[in-house]
Specification:
By secondary structure, this protein is α+β, with helices and mostly antiparallel strands. The chain folds into 2 domains: 2-221, no CATH class; 243-723, no CATH class. It has helices spanning 33-39, 42-55, 57-66, 85-89, 143-162, 198-205, 230-259, 269-272, 276-284, 295-318, 325-333, 338-341, 347-360, 368-373, 375-398, 411-428, 446-457, 459-465, 470-495, 513-518, 521-524, 526-540, 550-569, 571-574, 582-608, 614-619, 624-647, 657-694, and strands spanning 2-9, 13-20, 92-95, 98-110, 185-193, 219-221, 715-716, 722-723. The two termini are 42 Å apart. Pfam families: Acyl_transf_3 (PF01757), NRF (PF20146). Residues 1-19 form the signal peptide.
């Protein structure tokens, strides 16, 4: 949708531009549109502007100071200046019979736009107002910078898929543009009196005919413009009630166990379920479990850190305004960005772990018949174990996360809030990867959707695996993997996707990679089945001593390192602008994920049977156990919290890898703290309640680690059926 945008520099500089809105979401669903309309008053706007300009130079200076500046580092790709958001909204002065308040607005102007200031038809009463010093040549950029901006725009569009921001398609070819700068716009802020629209302010100062000027604001913000909705009240009531339960349960628990020193077995488990004291003990207490795969805690912790740092860079490049986005483009194309560019492959580690734990924790403990008899509990327990933390995050994103802070870059948070208010139900049904995938509530939860969908079909394979016949189990597992590989290969070779979440060489006719490949269950299923096969191998050799020669071990480790390194390195050539090899893209999309899963599976097998050496020592260290238990809540909450932190930016940031790592450390600490709180408030209490009500009359253990199988989040349905939650 095209808009004629015009902008006022210090209330007198005007530019015309054809532009497109970047954020595609319903603002009326998150901001009070009636409030914006009610404050508009053309006559009051004229009255206030005349008073400010002619009678109060200090107040005039405040409006000018809170308004726009020319973007710094324009030649490095910075097309944004955010003005002074809080200073503008903080203007509030009562004079005569007027209450003059500030309104913060954003608009766009094109690059390479020239304007002769002397030609502006200024109204006679404002002729004595000095024009600001402004050199319009600043908007001229050379062809090299322009082409770099095209690269940056291409990457930003692809990255915004990952943060749930939808962009309209627009042509960014300079050759096709009738005038320079049509595709790239400079986004600037202006501070106006509250009764004014941008057009009213312009018409007040400038004597323009309707044919001379058309204007449309991108958006405006005024104080207290976030409307209260039902989700806000529901969230407040629920979390206030949870706080009361936590306080009462903790007091009850401390009184019985510490003050009265009663036998822990005599404590009412339901009254104790919300206790901070007991739930913290459960979190930090670990008792060795026979047959546990100790290295999984380290793998899970490292994979989670890799996910968070990858999302930190993505949000750094997309959600936060940057002074030097073109430097970020150079970093993306460099060899040293591989550890970030390849971060998406770590999600396949979790798919593999899910399949591995599913088989390892159930094989040998039930028959196929008993699995079918308890299938309703198998599914129900899985859903209920994932539901509380996910529902809590959805509710917070739809309500309180929108209210915790603010800033000129808050639009991304507002867009996420709008999406959660509309599509919360598809996320709770785990169909968000197919229904409105470009507008997901909590876009990173596409992983949960695919994982749950794979879990739904897993009994078709698990039934034969637990039947007790090895030959049948092997045929079933192998067939499942082959069907997955063949199906995804045919699909990839027919459609012809590029490789990776973002690349500088995208064909115009290429289908949407994110929608049709990245969040597609078919294309992401193979690591899950690789995990199931290795889960069965680990089950077969559980408790057995395996003798492998040093040469064979060395060869297998070398092969695993070569394969995993090759997968990581494959992200380097495909991100280059000159890359154009569809056959290799198809091969990589079809097989790099199961190859990665295979490499990690070998690492687990080697560590479990004494061939891991220092790698096993590192991955099995007890320090990873708490992170392993918090990892599910960390995954759910880290992404929306990153967006909130970036939304509070009051000025563009300067991109450096060092600063990005600092942001990762901040994001990681925030994620750990948020995961701990949500575990105490929601996850741990619900775990106890689910065990109590689904477990019949069985009494839960007094204090037992939340993760019984391989320190995962596996929860028992009954003695024989378990449902692993892979984080």
């Amino acid at each position: 949708m095209e808009y004629k945008l015009f902008f006022l520099i210090n209330s007198v500089f005007i530019i015309t531009v054809n532009a497109q809105m970047d954020m595609i979401y319903d603002r009326d669903n998150v901001f009070d549109s009636k409030l914006y309309e009610e404050v508009l008053d053309r006559e009051e706007c004229l009255k206030q502007i005349r008073y400010i300009v002619t009678n109060d130079p200090l107040l005039w200076a405040r409006f000018l100071d809170a308004g726009l500046r020319m973007p710094r580092s324009l030649q490095k790709g910075n097309l944004n200046d955010l003005g002074s958001y809080y200073e503008c909204l903080g203007i509030n002065k009562n004079v005569q019979d007027m209450n003059i308040e500030g309104k913060y607005c954003m608009a766009k102007i094109p690059v390479n736009q020239l304007l002769n200031l002397s030609s502006l038809p200024i109204r006679s009463e404002f002729l004595e107002v000095p024009l600001p010093e402004f050199n319009p040549v600043i908007f001229n950029i050379d062809n090299s910078t322009y082409n770099d901006l095209i690269k940056q725009m291409s990457i930003k569009k692809q990255l915004q898929k990952l943060v749930g921001t939808t962009l309209e398609n627009n042509d960014i070819s300079r050759d096709k543009a009738p005038s320079l700068g049509v595709e790239f716009s400079i986004q600037l802020a202006v501070c106006l009196p509250k009764p004014c629209s941008l057009q009213n302010a312009l018409n007040t100062i400038l004597d323009l005919q309707p044919s001379d000027l058309m204007i449309e604001e991108e958006y405006c913000r005024i104080p207290n413009d976030k409307q209260w909705v039902a989700a806000d009240y529901v969230a407040l009531v629920i979390f206030i009630l949870l706080s009361i339960l936590v306080i009462l349960s903790t007091v009850y628990d401390i009184r019985h166990q510490i003050l009265l020193k009663k036998d822990p077995k005599s404590v009412n488990k339901l009254y104790q379920s919300f206790s901070v004291y007991t739930n913290t003990l459960r979190l930090v207490t670990y008792k060795p479990v026979p047959g546990a795969l100790e290295c999984l805690d380290g793998i899970r912790a490292f994979a989670m850190m890799w996910v968070i740092i990858g999302h930190t860079f993505v949000n750094y490049l997309v959600s936060a305004p940057l002074y030097n986005p073109l430097d970020a483009v150079d970093f993306i194309q460099s060899f040293w960005s591989l550890w970030i560019m390849s971060a998406p492959i770590t999600v396949d580690t979790f798919f593999m772990l899910s399949g591995l734990l599913l088989v390892y924790s159930t094989a040998g403990k039930m028959t196929g018949l008993k699995l079918m008899q308890n299938l309703h509990l198998f599914y129900l327990n899985r859903y209920l174990r994932l539901f509380p933390v996910l529902a809590a995050c959805i509710l917070l994103q739809a309500s309180l996360f929108h209210r915790v802070s603010d800033g000129p870059a808050w639009e991304t948070v507002a867009a996420q809030t709008d999406q959660c208010r509309k599509y919360w139900w598809s996320t709770l049904l785990y169909i968000q990867n197919y229904y409105k995938s470009s507008n997901m509530c909590l876009p990173h939860t596409w992983y949960l959707a695919i994982d749950f969908q794979l879990f739904l079909i897993s009994p078709l394979i698990l039934f034969w695996v637990v039947s007790g016949k090895k030959q049948t189990a092997w045929i079933t597992l192998t067939t499942a993997l082959l069907v997955s590989l063949v199906g995804s290969s045919i699909y990839n070779f027919i459609i012809g996707f590029g490789t990776g979440n973002f690349t500088l060489n995208q064909r115009e006719d290429q289908p949407d990679y994110f929608t049709y490949y990245y969040v597609n269950t078919l294309t992401r299923a193979s690591p899950f089945f690789v995990g199931m096969i290795f889960g069965y191998i680990l089950h077969i050799y559980r408790g057995k001593v395996i003798i492998i020669s040093k040469v064979q071990i060395a060869v297998l480790w070398l092969l695993a390192i070569i394969l995993s390194s090759g997968v990581i390195y494959s992200y380097y050539p495909v991100v280059q602008q000159e890359w154009d090899n569809q056959t290799v893209d198809n091969v990589l999309n079809s097989y790099m994920r199961p190859i990665w899963a295979l490499s990690v599976c070998w690492m687990i097998f080697a560590c479990a049977h004494g061939y891991g050496g220092p790698i096993n020592w590192l991955l099995s260290h007890p320090m990873w156990k708490i992170l392993g238990r918090l990892s599910y809540a960390m995954y759910i909450f880290h992404f929306p919290l990153m967006i909130i932190v970036n939304g509070t930016s009051i000025a563009p940031l300067y991109f450096t890898t060092e600063f990005a790592i600092q942001k990762f450390m901040t994001d990681f600490v925030i994620a750990v703290l948020a995961a701990y709180l949500i575990t105490l408030y929601v996850d741990a209490p619900c775990s106890v309640l689910i065990k109590h009500f689904l477990g019949g009359n069985k009494r839960p253990a007094p204090i037992k680690p939340l993760d019984d199988i391989a320190n995962s989040s596996a929860k028992n349905i009954n003695d024989n059926v378990e449902s692993p939650k892979d984080f």
